[in-house]
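User: Good morning. I'm curious how adenosine-5'-diphosphate would be positioned relative to this chain. Could you predict the structure with it bound?
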Amino acid sequence: MALKRVFFPGSFDPFTKGHEAIVTKALGIVDEIVIGIGVHSTKTPFFSLETRKHHIQHLFPSERIKVVSFTGLTVDACIQHQCSHLLRGLRDSKDFQYERSIAHMNQRLSGIETLFLLTDLSLSAINSTIVREIYQNQGDITAFVTNSELLIKGL
Ligand code: ADP
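Assistant: Good morning! Here's the predicted structure, ligand included:
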């Protein structure tokens, strides 16, 4: 059975070249990707939801990609958007340890399996938290975020 539609959840605060590479790789495997920006009451994002959404939509004008926001359980959002699998990116063994637990919990909760893709080595050091800190300290983030001017405009 071909993978029709997968759900790629994350905070994407901001959406980096690492996230972008995972989506681009996945487009070679699946028909459609729903990128889900998680909105959590306990987590205040740096970049607004609207800015993050606009930035990602601008990066992927393809009809095969939809950008949504969601609250609540990731697996519920996955089902709501009629996705058969979750998609996550792996940078290193630390990501793997963490992602493995979440994937097992999601599998137990819903039966939904997670598809993992490895990042390119050159992008494995990119991390949204560090990118945010560079930005907050007036550093240049253009090497880590495509079209970063869209984020800056949105602030
Ligand atoms: P979350 O808050 O859910 O961890 P993130 O926005 O930090 O959301 O990450 C979303 C997904 O993208 C996760 O699977 C994460 O491991 C992956 N990811 C983050 N940075 C990179 C990167 N540089 N290369 C590949 N995958 C990445």
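The domain at 3-154 is CATH 3.40.50.620 (Rossmann fold). Residues 10-12, 16, 18-19, 22, 88-89, 91, 95, 119, 123, 126-128 surround adenosine-5'-diphosphate (CB under 6 Å).
Let me know if you'd like a different ligand tried.
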